[in-house]
Design brief:
By secondary structure, the protein is an alpha/beta fold. It folds into two domains: 114 residues, NAD(P)-binding Rossmann-like Domain (Rossmann fold, 3-Layer(aba) Sandwich), CATH 3.40.50; 161 residues, Dihydrodipicolinate Reductase, domain 2, CATH 3.30.360.10. It is 36% helix and 22% strand. The structure holds NADP nicotinamide-adenine-dinucleotide phosphate.
Length: 330
């Protein structure tokens, strides 16, 4: 069987983990070229062409599917456009770009009738977007609640053990759980982007960022954990959307929760999501919600699903009456 040819956008942590998984596990995938921002950056890729030229990427290398493992933005929109217009699927980990250009991505995918999948963009290796689009597709969801940012959860877990905020942040950065500029994580904005995607796939509604209230973890101090501990509680950054009087109420904020609760026991860089249906059942998903390998694993799962024809087109998000949506994502 001939190998699946992949055009890889990006050459950083996730892209290199993707290459690694393909090579180490001898997957039936051939990465034909990497399209990056700065082609002279050393990245230890020797046998695969690395280019920053879009023309070269499209004219020299033929691929079956585009994998976006970059943090590119609209400057690379024509890459998405050319790929989809030539009837090739796109799978992506690029959450910020997906949320910022949500309608543009989905309209183009619909127009071109190609799958556009992004499991990797929300809680990396945890297959929650797929679950919402398959198992939960015909079930009414009452609530989605979870820990969606591994950096914050690592910091909060360390503070629970007595670390100061600054030390915990430094440690998270040293271990690669937090970026040099951690502001998007600490402010809760990263978790809010992921919650927007979960709301869309879970409730079939598009929300505006501004309709999800936001509070980050920057102002938490050791004393907050001591106070919580006296009540048998700990603190976690919780992203939650639930139906209240027929409306979706959504928020991201640090909350005191029992130490013994399922979310209270999620430690370190793990993520967890609980989905409650209108039937009153709650299912929990826990796993590696960040990092090169977990994110690359999600991209690989999506890659095969997309080539098998799975897409988000017939899910409740698309079937819901758009005129009833109160809010439109930015
Ligand atoms: N790391 C995680 O745990 C994780 C988890 C879930 C989702 N994600 C998402 O996955 C994506 C990649 O994350 P990462 O950790 O691998 O980031 P990273 O190490 O900073 O790598 C980003 C890559 O994007 C490339 N890039 C930026 N602008 C570009 C452009 N205009 N054209 C082509 N390439 C461009 C960069 O190229 P150069 O190398 O040439 O600068 C770099 O290789 C991001 O969107 C991130 O939000 C990451």
């Amino acid at each position: 069987m001939s190998k699946i040819k992949v055009g890889l956008l990006g050459g950083g942590t996730v892209a290199l983990s993707f290459l690694d998984l393909v090579q180490v596990h001898s997957l039936n995938i051939e990465v034909v070229a990497l399209l990056v921002k700065n082609e002279s950056k050393p990245r230890g890729v020797t046998r695969i062409p690395v280019t920053s030229s879009e023309n070269e990427f499209f004219s020299l290398y033929d691929f079956d599917i585009l994998v976006d493992a970059s943090n590119a933005g609209n400057e690379r929109w024509s890459v998405i456009e050319k790929t989809m217009l030539s009837k090739k699927p796109v799978v992506s980990a690029n959450k910020k770009w997906i949320v910022d250009q949500f309608d543009a991505f989905h309209s183009l995918a619909r127009l071109c009738e190609v799958p556009f999948l992004y499991e990797a963009a929300t809680a990396a290796a945890i297959p929650v977007v797929k679950a919402l689009n398959s198992y939960y597709k015909d079930l009414d969801i009452q609530g989605i609640k979870g820990i969606l940012n591994g950096s914050c959860n690592y910091i909060l877990s360390q503070m629970e053990r007595g670390c100061t905020f600054q030390d915990a942040l430094k440690e998270a950065q040293l271990k690669g759980f937090a970026e040099e500029d951690p502001s998007l994580d600490l402010s809760g904005e990263d978790a809010r982007s992921k919650l927007l995607l979960l709301v869309y796939h879970g409730f079939g509604k598009k929300m505006n960022r501004n309709h999800i209230s936001l509070q980050g973890i920057q102002n938490l101090r050791e004393q907050d954990f001591k106070n919580a501990a006296q009540r048998g509680e700990t603190i976690r950054l919780i992203a939650e959307a639930r139906i209240l009087k027929g409306e979706i109420k959504a928020e991201v904020r640090p909350r005191c929760i029992p130490k013994t609760s399922s979310l209270g026991q999620v430690k370190g860089a793990l993520n967890a999501i609980e989905i409650t249906t209108a039937f009153g059942c709650t299912e929990s998903f826990t796993g590696q919600g960040a990092g090169g390998t977990p994110t690359a694993q999600a991209l690989i799962s999506d890659l095969f699903s997309a080539l098998e024809g799975f897409d988000y087109q017939d899910t409740k998000a698309f079937l819901s009456d758009r005129s009833k949506c109160e809010n439109i994502m930015e």
